[in-house]
Structures are given as structure tokens and as C-alpha cells.
Amino acid sequence: MTLLDAWIIVIYLIGVVLLGIFISKKAGKDLKNYFLSGNRVPWYWLSVSNASSMFDITGTMWVVYVMVVYGMKGILLQWQWPIFNQIFMMVYLAVWIRRSNVLTGAEWMGTRFSRRGGEFARLAVTLFAFISVIGFLTYAFQGIGKFAATFLPWDFSPDTYAILFMSVTAIYVVAGGMYSVVFTDVIQFVLLGAAGIALGVIAMHRIDAGEIARLVPQGWDTLRFGARLGIDWSESLPSAQQRIMTDGWEFFSIILMGLLFKGFLVSSAGPSPGYDMQRVLATRNPRESALMSGMVTVSLIPRWIMIAGISLMAVKFFIPEMLAMGADVDYEQILPFVIRRFLPAGLMGIILAGLLAGFMSTFDSTVNSGAAYLVNDIYKRYINPKASDKKLVLMSYGASLFLVLLGILFGLMAESINEAMMWIVSGLWGGYAAPNMLKWYWWRMNGFGFFWGMVSGMAAALCLPLLIPGLHPLVTFPIVFGLSLAGTIAGSLLTPKEPDEILCDFYRTVRPWGFWKPVKEKVQLETPGLKPSSFRRDMMSICIGIVWQLSLAAVPVYLVMKYWGPMLIWLVVALITTGLLKVVWYDKLEKKSSGT
Known about the structure:
This protein has one domain: Sodium/glucose cotransporter, CATH 1.20.1730. About 75% of the residues lie in helices and about 0% in strands. The chain is globular, with a radius of gyration of 23 Å. The N and C termini lie far apart (about 50 Å). The relative contact order is 0.16. The chain is mostly helical. Helix 18 (about 345-385) packs across helix 19 (about 390-415).
């Protein structure tokens, strides 16, 4: 790294910290300002902020590994998060959530369940939020440590660098709350977008399609697949073939069906109680919450350009070094290798600042959302209900610092990015999906069912890795989901149903589709003109939306690869699906601009 690169990074870090301190007065008025920016931030800023939070350095390192080894099929493997949860949010869930007018996902429980059962549900989702935030902070810790140790000139360990950057980010998160998060995220997104486009242009300049075709196995450069993956690295890069076998993704059709099944369950449950939920609740009204969620997919196009550029340069220039490493290849180091080797002075500093911005954006959003649960749903709810706004904001500072310290502690104990990520997407979300899915679509579910479903799911997610080490994520998920589903149904049926007034108020406000017939009939007697959400239209929009999202990833990747034929095909798909979404989704969005 040159002195110019170092100064660019230092100036960036100082700038975001000063911005957080500058904004702190506006954020410090009360909890609504601190955690939801007073519901005054435009939806497109929140969307860019949300996209910036997903543009994290740790996830980018993992996606680059997947793209190098699995090629274009790596785009489909993103479904394990699942990335199409944003489509479910865009189509209907963001609207349903925003109609509640609450501060956190835990507080939302009071709109669905009565006081007694709701208290148990609220405690369960707060506990889950706490565990998931620690999981994501552990995941971020691993990525930023490995990345910084590769570039920065001081002879510090990855753990030391991770502690340093988490501490710097904590300063502006604590000071400025959601205002600081959003405004710094927008600045960070500009850096990230510039970094992504620059890397894509460099890759296009240095590589042509013919070179890539000669270097990669057959089937690497297409989204088509059969019963098996159909990519064989055994001759050109044996370690990559070994990773495919270790990952367990060789039987690709079965894997993809499993990812779709899991993805639909998790996505239909709604967002986990983290930064995605907070962005929805921070919008000004339900219509803007849907637009915000939809814009996230478009905003991630620069990320796909960056990933394509890094992956292609790694395929051309890094394979000899990976062969020399033998079986001990650390694929999570591909991204640092490409940046270190191929970027000129000045541009390296901008791109490094952009990637550090990605880490900080994910980190700040996670900490802010986690602190909201600790303060609003624990301290204010049970410890000091009469606390002043000033006291609550001070407690928010303390809660943010507490989460940072726990994230550092668990980050020191984790072994790799992949380990942390797989536990989150398979075990933890398996325990979350069942109760959070049924709360939307089944009227008979109550607060006790939610509590026991969440508790049994979280217990299974925490214990399974200890009881059965090495269990594949796609096997872990259905086990955890099944135990959580059993706990949810049993807990609901063995306890009284929720009072009619609670169920009717919820149905009248949210208007969900699903198994609500007894409640729907009562509400329509009282409010004859009330129209429920359309299941058929929403499902049609989701199917179109998933193809639309896939096309918006495929087009920039094929563009960087200079595969003009496939790029044009997917561009046509993107245009067609955009037009269809306008008709079946956008034109049907409620025009009412109120918060309800």
C-alpha cells in the first residue's frame, strides 16, 4: 500500500466518525429518532443504506469464493441466504410490517398477540435478535480481520485489526444512531459503487471471453444445470474440486430444490429482527416500505460488477498460486489477492475505503438494530418503564457498546467466515422460520405457540452443531425447522386462542391472506368494504420478482465477462420482468400516504 492509499483510508475513517458525532444531537432526542431516524428519511436513502449494509466485506469474500469455484451457478447459491427474501418484502411483507407503526420487531408482537402471550412472544424474539446480532457480528469480525491483515502495513494479527475497525465503527454508531447509520451508509455506497465499477472495468480491460473459456471447466460459464453440478476442476485445480465435494453441492438439482424450499419458508416468515426490519419500520408509510425493499435489488448491481471483476481476475491470475498451495488453499483470500496485485496507487485506496465502508455499513446497522431490542424491549419494557428520553438514549449508547464487546469476544472464538455464515443461514434461521411464518398466515397461533416455537428452534440451532459435528446445512435446517414447527403448533393448540378483538384488530390493520377464515368473516361483517391482500397476485409477483432479481445479477456478470449473447438474453428477461412487475405489483400498491 502506498502513502496515498493510506491517506485516503485515514481521511475516510476520520470523516465518518466526525459525521456521526455531528449528527448525534439530532439522533439523541428520543428512541424514535435514535433507532428509526424519526420516520423522516426518504425511502430511497433507506434503500441505498440497506443495500450498503448487504455490500459487506465478509459476504463479498465468500461470494467471490463461490463465483470462482462454481462460476455462474454461484449466483444461484446465493439463495441459501436467501437473497430473494427482498422480493417477498417488496411484494407484500414490508407493507404488512410497516402498517404496525412500532419501533422494533419485538414490539410488533403486541399487535398480533394478547398481553400475556405477547409478553412471552416478545421475550422470545428479543432473545433471538440478541443471538442473531452476535452471530452476524462474529461473521463480520472474521471477514474484516482477514481482509485488513492482508493490506495494512502494520504487523498486527487479523484479530487485532478486527478489534480496531469494530471499535472505530462503534464510535459513530453510538453517537448518531440510525441517522448516522443512514447518512454514512449513503456515503459508503457511493464509495462501494465506484469501487465495484472500477474493478469491473479493470477486469474487462485485462481479460477476454476466450481466455476465460480456456481456463475454466465446461459448464462454469452458464446458469444451466442438470441433476449434477457438471463442473470438474479435478485436472486444472484439484483443491477446487475438493471444496465442491466438501461443500456437498455436487448433486445440484437436489441442492437447488432444497435451497428454494428453505428460501420460501424463511422468506415468508419475514425479515429477522435486524437491520432489514429496522429499515422497513423507519420508512414513512407502507407504500414507501415496499418501494424501499424493491430498490435494494437494483442498488446491488455495482456489487455484482465488483464480484465478477474480482472472480475473473482470480481465475486468470491466481490459479497458479492456488495450485502451488496444494490442498491448503484459503479461498477467502482471493479478494485481497486481486486487489493487492492489480490495482494502481490511489485507486487501491478508494477501493479499500469502499470495502471497509461495506464492513462498517453492515456492522453499524447490526449494532443499531440489536441495541433497539435491548433498550426498547428489555430495559424500557421491564426495568424502567418511566425512563426519560435522555436516559433511554444513554442506555442505547451502553447497549451498543455492550454488543460490540460481545461481537469481539465471539469473533475471537470463531474459526472461519464459512463456519459463522453456515450456522446463521442453516441453524439459526431454521429456528426462526416456523413460528414467524405461522404468525402471518394461521389465525389459531398464539403468543405461547410463538414462544415455544422460537425457544425449541433456538435450542436446536445451538445444540445440533455440538451433538452432530459436521452436519450439512441443508440437513440441519429441516431438523431445526421441524422441531420449531412442532413446538409452535403444540404450544398454540395446548393453550387458549387469542381474544377475538386482538385477532380482528390485527386482521383489519394488516389484511393478510392465509388461514384466517373465521376472523375474516367477523371483520367483514363489521367492515364490509375491507379487501384482504391477494394471495394469487402476490405469488405471481414473487415468481416474476425472483426471475427479475436473477436477471439483474446475471446481466452485470455477463457484461464483465464480455459474454454478449447471454448478456443480451438476460437483459431482455430483465426488461420483460420489469414490465410485468409494474403491472402486477407496482400499479397495485396502495396510494395512501399515511403511516397506516
